[in-house]
Amino acid sequence: MENFEKRDKKIHLTFDDGPTPGITSRVLTLLSEYDAKATFFCLGKNVENNPELFQSIKEQGHAIGNHSYSHLNGWKTPRKQYFEDVKKAEQIIVSKLYRPPYGKISLMQWIKLRKSFRLILWTCLSCDYDPKKATEAVLKKIKKASHAGAVIVFHDSEKAWPVLQKVLPLYLEYLKSNNFSCQPIV
C-alpha cells in the first residue's frame, strides 16, 4: 500500500469500474462544481465501449488507472489469465497506476505487477455499491475515514449510482467546508 502524505489536508477520491454512460459524466460534473480532482480506475472493456467518456476524464484533469480489462478476482483467477487481462487493459489504459478488482490479489500477482505499476488500494471503501446501505451510514463511514492522505473508493457504475448520487454531493460539501482538497493520485 502506498504511503500518502499526511501533513496536508489532501484527500484522494477514487472511482472504480467506469467509465459508465450516464453516470461518469454526472460524477465529472459534481467534481467540477467542487473543484475536486480524482483518480478513475477504469475497466478496459468500459474504456473500449466509451472512449469519449474516458477522454473527458483525462481532459478534465483527473488521473486514470488500470483496473483490469474485465474485473477478474485475483484470488479466483489463474495467474496467467489474470496477467493477460491486466495486459489487455494496459493496451487501452496508459497508466502506471493499478488497482486490483475487489482488492483481491495474490502475493505472486502483487510481486509481478509491482514491477510495472504502482499498486493502489485504499483507506476506506465507501460500499456505495450496496443498495442496502443508507446514505447517512455511508456518509458517516467516509467522514470518519477522512484525514490527510486518505484514499476513498467510490464506483462510477450503475450498481453504485443510487447511493453515490446522494452521498457524493454531501461528501464533497463536507470536504469543502472542512478545508480538504481533492487531488488525484500521481
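The above is record 1. Record 2 follows with the same two-line structure.
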Amino acid sequence: MTEDDLLPLSALQHLLFCERQCALIHLEQVWVENSLTVEGRHLHEQADSGVQESRGDLRIARALPLRSLRLGLSGRSDVVEFHRIGESSWRPFPVEYKRGRPKSHRADEVQLCAQALCLEEMLETSVPAGALFYGQTRRRLDVAFDAELRLLTEETADRLQRLIASGITPAPVHEPKCDQCSLLPVCMPAAPAGSARQYLDRFLRAAQQAGVD
C-alpha cells in the first residue's frame, strides 16, 4: 500500500461507532458540527499545538505524524510521550485526548492502539501501553495494548479498508446513540420505511385527502 492509499486513523473510531457515519464522513465527505464536536475539536487543538517539551527522562511530542503501510492508516497523534528506558533508548507512550468520559465500547481504545501500531512500524520498537485523557473527568485511563486489543484493531482496520473500497454507504438504522451524532439531520435514520417513491406516494395521497393542491 502506498502513502496515497492510506485512510485516516480517526475513521476507526467512526467505524466502530457506526458504519453509516463512517461512510458518510469518509466516502461522501459529509460533516456537520454540533456542540459535542466543537468541544472535542477545541480539546484536540490544545493538544495538537505542535509544541515539544523535554523534562529530564521525559520528552513530549505533539501532533506527531503517524502512518502504517501494513494497516493502511495515517494521521497525527495528540501527544506521544517518550520515556527514557536506557542510556540512549526511549519508549513511546501515545496519549489520545477525548471529550466526555470513558465509554462502554472500545472505539477509543482501538484508535489509540492503532497509533501504537503505527509507532511500532515507524520506529521499529515496542509500544506496550498508552493512555486516553477524557475532558469531562479530567483523568487519564491507562490502556494496555494486549493481544486481544491488537487483534481487534487490525480487524477494524481491515473492515475500514473493505468499506471504503466498496464505495457503498450502509442504509440507516435508528439506534439510541443516533441522538448524540452530529450527522443526525443528514443521516435521517428515523426516515419512513420503504422507497422514496412509496414515501412520496403516501405524502401526495395524504395531501389530496386533506384537500391540499
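Residues 147-166 form the longest helix (20 residues).
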